[in-house]
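Q: What would this chain look like folded?
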Amino acid sequence: MKLNRRIFIGSAAAASATLSAPMVMGGSHGMPKVVVIGGGAGGATVARYLAKDSKGAIDVTLVEPTRTYYTCFFSNLYLGGFREFSSLAHTYGKLASEYGINVVHDWAVAVDRDAKTVTLAGGAVLPYDRLVLSPGIDFRDGAVPGWDVTAQQKMPHAYKAGSQTQLLKAQLEAMPQGGTFAMVAPPNPFRCPPGPYERVSMVAHHLKVNNPTGKILILDPKPKFSKQGLFQEGWSNHYDGMIEWVGPDFGGDKVEVRPDSMEVVVDGEVTKVDVCNVIPAMKAGRIAEVAGVTNDKGWAPVHAADMRSKMDDNIHILGDASMQGDMPKSGFAANSQAKVAANAIRGALTGSKVFPAKFTNTCWSLIDTDDGIKVGASYEATDEKIAKTDGFISKTGEDAALRKATYEESVGWYDGITSDMFG
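A: My prediction, written as C-alpha cells:
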C-alpha cells in the first residue's frame, strides 16, 4: 500500500496495521456505505436515521469503542443523588437488531481521505462513500498547569461520563466534614455551557444533605457564564454562603493545580482542597484531528446546511467536535444536527428529497430539588454558519410550580432523546 499525501495515521501501531495486509470490511456489493465514528448523541442518531429512513438502501457502520454508553447529560444529577448511575447507561443492541446497523466496538485510528477508508485499531479497514465524525471532545494539553490526563484519578474531569463520573461521586462522598470541593472551570468554547454550574449545584445539594459545613470554590477563567443570574439566584436561595465563585478579576484565569498534594494555586496563593474537579480547555475528539479536518483552534469547521466538513465534502462532523456557528455544544444540539446530516447524506446517496436545515436546542439544569431552569433557541443554516433565529431562557423569581414543571420536562426529554439515539 502506497502512502499518499492525504492519509492520516493516528499511531505507529495503526500505521503498522495498515501497511500489513489489512482486512477490508464491506457491506452489500454496490450499496452506498456510510461509516459513523462515535456513538453518542450525534453518531448514534445519524446512524439510526440513515438506516431507518433509507429502508436498507444504505449500508451503515457505527464505530464506537465502548459497549455501554454513559450520557454526559444528566450525569450531574447522579452526583447530586437524583439519579442512579445505571440510568445513564445505554447499549447498541437495538441499533444492530432492529435497524440493521453494523455496530463495531473498536477505536478508529486512521482515515485515508483519498481512498475513503477508515482503519480500526484491530486492523480492519472500512470503506465509505460518506464518513460521519461525531467523536465528542478531547482536552487541550497543558490547558491547566499541573494537570494532564495522568492526573485524572486524583483530580477527575468527569466531563466524559462513565468511570470518571463514579470517581468524582466517590471523592465527593469521602469529603471530610467542613472540607472544600474545588472546580477549575473551562474557557469557552466547551461542551455543555451550563454543565459546570449545574454540577456545582448538584455538589452543593449533596453537601447540604450530608456535609452542611462543606465549601465549594469555583475557579473560572471566564468573566461570565451560562444562566449566571439564574444559578446565582438559586445558590443564594438554597446554598447561602456555601459557594464562592472566583472569576478572572480575582485570579480565576491564573490557576495551577498540584494533584499530589491536593492544592490549587490561584494567582500565586496556595489553597489546600479535599476534592478538585479539573475541567480543562477542550478541542474536537482526536479522530477529527487525525483525519485532518480541524483548524488551528482544534475544532472542525462545517457547512451549516448539511454539517459537511469545509475540508472534505465526503466527511460530515456533528456535535461537540464541530465549529458550526451559534449552537452550543450539547447533546440536544448534536441530535438535531444528526437529523439534518442524515437527511442530506441520504439525499446525496439515494436521490431522496432533502429538506432545508432547521436546528433546535434546549439545555436544562437542576439547581435543587424540583428547581429546574432552561435555555434554548431555534436556528437556521446560512452561508456563513448555523445562525440563531430566536431563543428563550427561564426568568429569575419564577414560582416553584413552574420550576418543578421545567425539571419534569427535562426528565421527559432525557427519555425521549435516548430513545431517539438508541431505538
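The radius of gyration is 22 Å.
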